[in-house]
Amino acid sequence: MTTDSKALEGYIAEQKNRLSANPQCGVTHYNLGVALLSRGDFLEAERAFRDAVTHSPTLVEAYVQLGGLALQSGDLEGCLNYNKMAAEGRPMFATPQGNIGFVYMQMGEPSKAARALERAVKLDPNFIQALATLGNAYMMEGDLERAEKVLRQALDKEPMFGPAWNNLALVLLERGEHANALECIDKAVATGYDVRPELLEEVAPYRSQAQPA
Fold first, then answer.
1. Which among 51, 73, 146, 199 is least buried, having the fewest CB atoms inside 10 angstroms?
2. pTM to 2 decimals?
3. What is the structure's pLDDT at 210?
């Protein structure tokens, strides 16, 4: 067992000891859940997060974690509902709003996604993932101008955020700006972002056209 593994097991044991003395402490249940996630013990982690909100209903981070576990198992509705509970419990918390927007995008509902993502960005203007996803939602709504504006805002804040470059490339392709789209794709690749092979194939003809004779 590595030193990190030993430290993790020691931390888990410590949280369990604390719960033996005070089983009503929601924060300790939550901390245990996070540690169990790190160990890959998803079922026990889920149980710990459920115990956390049972004893501390305002600990909405546990709802967010439960949403993540639901998403991991392919339960989009479950993820959506948990994040809605988190948003209701703490309306000024940007993370669940961003997650709600992401799930709606996965469900093919860009208008609902955009409204949630707008709330997320209003609460946290530096929420880069929400900005990038919002740009994609605007594009799917057909509002290319707003999509480009939001994506450039994201890249102004974090120039190495690959998903924003990728989404901006999609917007520019919709406009027929192939050379600019290629540049964005190259920047996305340079960040280490895994651009979809289908997109790379789509732009390949334009790349050859851009080469000097």
1. 73
2. 0.90
3. 59
Q: Which amino acid, 179? A: A
Per DSSP, the residues of the chain read --HHHHHHHHHHHHHHHHHHH-TT-HHHHHHHHHHHHHHT-HHHHHHHHHHHHHH-TT-THHHHHHHHHHHHTT-HHHHHHHHHHHHHH-TT-HHHHHHHHHHHHHTT-HHHHHHHHHHHHHH-TT-HHHHHHHHHHHHHHT-HHHHHHHHHHHHHH-TT-HHHHHHHHHHHHHTT-HHHHHHHHHHHHHTT----HHHHHHHHHHHHHHS--
Flag the least confident range among 20-34, 104-118, 194-208.
194-208
Closest CA to 135 of 184, 84, 69, 192: 184
